[in-house]
């Protein structure tokens, strides 16, 4: 190899190793390991810092979300009704109002409806696919829709109503309830309307609800019902308003008192070994057939007896004369007058009496399979009862005394007498105040609102309108329906409730007319509310109201099924 080549090769080798390799001493190795450890610690520190920062962010995020979620739950939108954001406290006001109202109406009878308020409502079935929580949610949503729809309409119409008296009455009722329950007003309010309820919040809800009610009443009062509408409705529903007079005789079948198959099995004769003999299927069937034959024979005998009576009837007198000989149940009244179809039992009798082909003097025998009897019936007349109704004002002073179990009978009697005397004196004082004043209907109404203890009328001047005969307590009823009664008559009347200062306003329309008028007005108001709330959408973005989402799922399922069916039909049509 030439020197030139050696030089070129050496230069080439020198690219990789221009300097001679240095030998590593112990010190160098020690320093290298220290640097590597420092690098590892630095990387570890950076990694820990990154992980710590992430964890910190997660903690802050979770705590922040919990705070936000809790804040939203209390102060944010719980559900949206139309254009209105409803907070949880307001929703719970209507939710618990529904529970309170149901309990106030049914009390301990709620258990018969399958409801136990001491247990979770979402674990108790109201009906298939619906719990009691769903039911009260549904009621709350319905109330919210109506209240907001009515208040929106009231505002648009420029309707004004001072609800301060209603709010004050509510606040007073809370104070009274709290005192009776030995609780603070704040705790009583929360126990009644939810844990987020405060007096200021609930007062606002009461005010809004009162305005909605007042506006609804104003619309109802302005809703006119014409004579023609009443007449047309009567013609279409005569069976609901007409009355009939008729005679009836019940002839019950003498049903055999046979034991049931189950009872016969347990009392079957013992065998020689002392074991109870079990009836065979054939023996059971034979017993059932024997029992059925005996029952049919009893019904046949009752039918023959009824037919026998029927053949002898020629008029009302003959029916009355035969009644004692054939009736098996004299507790059943012979003559029925002014009977409504809905009150007649059994239903077969009512259907026959209200048949449009019925004529005076018609007779028949009707089977009552449920009661194991036959009825012999004589039709007398069908008519529209023209009984009048009346309007009256009153001021009630209750005479009940407060007694305790520790009191003797004599002490209780004395307390009752004293309470009665005090009530009578107070009624007389109020009556005297009226007579010594303006002595007008308006002045009487003012005294009623100030003094009457009848919560059903003391907010409208003690007025009851369109009162029907028999609707009120006996002596109250007798006074207002006295033939000599005339507008402006006054008197003090005693009933089992106490003393009533009376003011007779005058006659009203006939009962049938008033009933139809009320029905038509109710129908119109239901239609009004339906139309008013039709476009008011309820949005539950947070999933608080289960039944709404169940309804949405069912709707989507129906829609999907319909779409699939339509697609299948189109495909089948195309194949053809």
Automatic annotation (TrEMBL):
Q: Where is the composition biased (Basic and acidic residues)?
A: 19-35, 281-291
List the Gene3D superfamilies. Answer: 3.10.50.40, Porin chaperone SurA, peptide-binding domain
The segment(s) forming the PpiC domain are: 387-506
The annotated regions of Low complexity compositional bias extend over 258-271
What sections of the protein cross the membrane? Answer: 47-68
Q: Which PROSITE patterns match?
A: PPIC_PPIASE_2
**What is the protein's given name?**
Parvulin-like peptidyl-prolyl isomerase
Q: Does the keyword Isomerase apply?
A: yes
Keyword Transport carried by entry? no
For the region Disordered, give the residue spans: 1-35, 258-291, 554-576
Point to the regions of Acidic residues compositional bias: 566-576
Q: Which UniProt keywords apply?
A: Isomerase, Membrane, Rotamase, Transmembrane, Transmembrane helix
Ranges of compositional bias, category Polar residues? 9-18
Please name the taxonomic classification of the source: Bacteria, Bacillati, Bacillota, Clostridia, Lachnospirales
Q: Mind listing the GO molecular function terms for this protein?
A: peptidyl-prolyl cis-trans isomerase activity
